[in-house]
Write a structure and sequence with these properties.
By secondary structure, the chain is mainly alpha-helical. The chain is built from 5 helices and no strands.
Length: 99
Amino acid sequence: MLSLPFAAAEGALFCLFFVYVCWLASPPLRYSASAPPFLMDGGFLKRFAGYPGGLLQYGASFIAQLDCYAWLGALTSTGLAWGVAAQAGWAKRARRGSM
């Protein structure tokens, strides 16, 4: 379990991360520079399902569409960063044996 000061610091860090991505990293600019196409039909999915890593690329194409709006792209990036941090913390605790 996280202590309250550590959880507050972690929350503040990810709030600052959200603001940074939303205002300075500009997800709509990133989208306009390298927007992968994404279609929600069977033929488009079948193109990706046929090779290793294809479904991951299909999911990444979907997530990239969220960068059209600054707040939604920042929220997605923040959520992904929080997920990576949570998994790293879980792996660290598992390695120490305190799960």
